[in-house]
Amino acid sequence: MWTVVMYVGQVLKDLLKLPRPLSPPVVKLEKRVEAEYGLPSTHAMAATAISFTLLYSAPCRIQFPFEVGVWMAVALSTLVCLSRVYTGMHSVLDVLCGVFLSALILLVTYPFWDTLDHFQLSSPASPVFGLGVPLLLSYTYPELGHYSTTRGDTTTILGASAGCSVGYWVNAQLGETFEPKAPLPVPIPRITAASFTFGAVRFMFGVLALVGTRYVVKAASLRVLYRLHKVPQSDRNARKRKEIEVPYKFVTYTAVGLVNSILVNRAFVHLGLL
Considering only CA atoms, which of 142, 107, 108, 106 is closest in space to residue 13? Predict the structure, then answer.
């Protein structure tokens, strides 16, 4: 759902081409994305989609007071929306449109979540669909008259999603999905010193694995693409060219998604961390 709402939001930004709030009167605290358009706020879309997707997916897996979950989802998405106004990156209209679009996407897709999940994990066509569609969407992203970070950011999201999607399918085919051993829904485990320590170690190990994967695959893919397109290694602006930016980011983050979904959990098992 994060991938879907982010792609819809990023494309709408570059189709509608509505500017971000003017500075002054706002004070922009983020500079990297000044060239991006404003409406809708993809941060608001992502916060809403992630919070409420987790909320509506969790009851069949975890025992928790649903009312508390609603308040947590509302609080998290609201804080993110307010932060976008505070940092001067979006107007209230941008944020409200982002929330509305995510709510609409969740409402339309919710009846099909189980069907899509079953297809993703069990269909022989899942890897082709999981890799092919995101790659196609990366290359057909709307063209702009100037360079913007939206295409690269969207390709990053699509690549990570593609890698995870294929990885989940591979795990299902191998019969190892790292499910809880107890019948679902399981109670929320108590936080103890041991569980906190194990969680911290898993977090650090996972971060190192994914950052290392990104570093190695990014360097290798850029080297190949620079040589293929006869671009000097010192030309960092070449990364903004579509024929280099899209494949290097897609390959890099697909690899990150694959390592995250297949190898990291297996490493946890072998190290006794899961």
Answer: 142
Is 146 noted as a catalytic residue in this protein?
no
Please, are residues 81 and 41 in contact by the beta-carbon 8 Å criterion? yes
d(CA 239, CA 135): 18
Three-state secondary structure call for residue 63 = strand
Q: Taking a C-beta distance cutoff of 8 angstroms, is the pair 14, 37 a contact?
A: yes
Q: Tell me the C-alpha distance between 168 and 171, whole Å.
A: 5
Q: What is the DSSP letter of 240?
A: G
57-102, pLDDT tens digit by residue? 999 889 999 999 999 999 999 999 999 988 888 889 999 999 999 9
- CA-based radius of gyration for the chain: 20
Give Cα separations from 17 to 13, 97, 144, 164, 219 (angstroms): 6, 14, 10, 31, 33
Confidence of residue 20 (pLDDT cuts 50, 70, 90): confident
Residues 271 and 175 sit within 8 Å (Cβ to Cβ): no
Active site (annotated) includes residue 90: yes
How many whole angstroms separate alpha carbon 112 and alpha carbon 130?
17
